């Protein structure tokens, strides 16, 4: 039933999108619908599921995506060769449904062309981020072997690297390799998560949603172009902007001992950052981190549950979003979390000063420490 409702939602969005085009000013509205099948194997860091044979058969999945083609040469899209963005539905088949469930995901994606986007065989990289649901979580009595999922929902992350071969005026054959990750960021334990790596094959239908307002005769020869022909890439504007940002975030996590329960401990991150933006795309950061982890209940004093770190990072800017990748180390006691930490994050700039951010703070080696949600502001800019 959940999958049926999600499919209905996608269809509704498609129909609403088709109805929003004005009769008064018909213009090109490039859209696409893609159906893709995936198959591959697991990259699993544990041993229990492998030894039990639950991962031997690999996995399968189906993706359905609706895409909007950016085309405004005066917008941010020209810096990135006019990417396609949209929403997708993932339905996976991981083998034993009693252990893993029947994972589905609803996600947003952005497809960035690499090289010449007008080639017959176009190469692109497509990251995706969303929510996975319908997982079967760990239970000490009913599902004790599942150390991958501690909750029925998780973060969905996907990365597709592949090609689109222009087969006809409207149809593309799509193929490539992909990586998919399910994890709840240690919000609930156990949380080894699952990494899926495989190949994909699909078909993509390109169309111009404005056609019905120009000539809706099924036999007409008065056709609008079905797909966008990309102009030259816009040269990134030099900015050379400096700013100081303050970011405050919180979240919740479980310890291994609390796996299978609803008990969580609060965590807090405070970040003071210097940010330098070279141009419309690239930037770097460096700053200080303050961490508070209330899961260290063995310490009576709250001050003993804190640590301070420093970090450096890279920022990739597009539209109002920033993909952040930071690597840091501790300058005080690391509380047994290891010498280094990483923070991959996604920022949304609400205004030129205020922003919201969602990220993952990791342990040494890349395992999840906790997911953080927060807001920040830039009090100084020059």
- Report the biggest beta sheet as strand number plus sense, adding barrel if it closes: 8 strands, antiparallel, barrel
Structural class: mainly beta
In the CATH hierarchy, what is the architecture of the largest domain at level 2? Beta Barrel
Oligomer: single chain
Fraction in beta strands = over 45%
Number of strands: 16
Rounded mean pLDDT is 92
GO molecular function, one term: hydrolase activity
Organism: Ulvibacterium marinum
Signal peptide: 1-18
Protein name: Acyloxyacyl hydrolase
Tags for this model:
382 residues; mainly beta; Porin; 2 domains; eight-stranded antiparallel barrel; flat; hydrolase activity; hydrolase; Lipid-A_deacylase-rel
Characterise the protein shown here.
- It is a single chain.
- By secondary structure, the protein is mainly beta.
- The protein has two domains: 2-214, Porin; 238-381, Porin.
- The chain contains four helices and 16 strands.
- A hairpin with a 2-residue loop joins strand 12 (306-318) and strand 13 (321-330).
- The longest helix is centred in the N-terminal third of the chain and has 18 residues, at 2-19.
The gist of it:
Keywords: Hydrolase, Signal. The chain is built from four helices and 16 strands.
């Amino acid at each position: 039933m959940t999958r049926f409702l999600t499919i209905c939602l996608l269809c509704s969005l498609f129909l609403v999108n088709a109805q929003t085009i004005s009769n008064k000013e018909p213009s090109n509205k490039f859209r696409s619908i893609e159906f893709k099948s995936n198959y591959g194997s697991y990259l699993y860091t544990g041993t229990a599921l492998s030894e039990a044979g639950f991962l031997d058969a690999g996995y399968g999945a189906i993706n359905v995506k609706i895409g909007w083609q950016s085309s405004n040469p005066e917008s941010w899209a020209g810096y990135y060769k006019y990417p396609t963005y949209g929403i997708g539905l993932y339905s996976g088949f991981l083998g034993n449904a009693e252990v893993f469930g029947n994972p589905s995901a609803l996600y947003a994606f952005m497809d960035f062309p690499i090289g010449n986007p007008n080639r017959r065989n176009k190469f692109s990289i497509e990251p995706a981020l969303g929510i996975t649901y319908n997982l079967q979580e760990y239970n000490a009595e009913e599902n004790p072997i599942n150390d991958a999922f501690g909750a029925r929902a998780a973060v969905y992350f996907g990365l597709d690297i592949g090609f689109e071969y222009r087969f006809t005026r409207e149809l593309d054959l799509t193929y490539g390799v992909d990586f998919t990750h399910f994890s709840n960021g240690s919000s609930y334990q156990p949380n080894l998560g699952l990494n899926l790596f495989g190949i994909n094959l699909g078909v993509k239908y390109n169309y111009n949603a404005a056609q019905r307002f120009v000539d809706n005769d099924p036999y007409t020869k008065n056709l609008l172009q079905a797909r966008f022909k990309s102009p030259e890439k816009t040269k990134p504007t030099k900015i050379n902007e400096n700013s100081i940002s303050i970011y405050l975030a919180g979240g919740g996590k479980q310890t291994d001992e609390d796996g299978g329960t609803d008990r969580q401990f609060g965590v807090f991150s405070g970040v003071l950052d210097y940010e330098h933006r070279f141009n419309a795309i690239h930037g770097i950061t460096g700053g200080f981190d303050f961490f508070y982890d209330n899961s260290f209940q063995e310490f009576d004093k709250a001050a003993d549950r804190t640590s301070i770190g420093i970090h450096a990072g890279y920022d990739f800017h597009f539209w109002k979003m920033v993909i952040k990748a930071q690597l840091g180390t501790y300058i005080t006691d690391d509380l047994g979390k290891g010498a280094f930490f990483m923070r991959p994050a996604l920022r949304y700039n609400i205004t030129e000063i205020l922003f919201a951010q969602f990220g993952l703070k990791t342990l040494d080696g890349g395992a999840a420490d906790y997911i953080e949600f927060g807001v920040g502001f830039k009090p100084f800019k020059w």
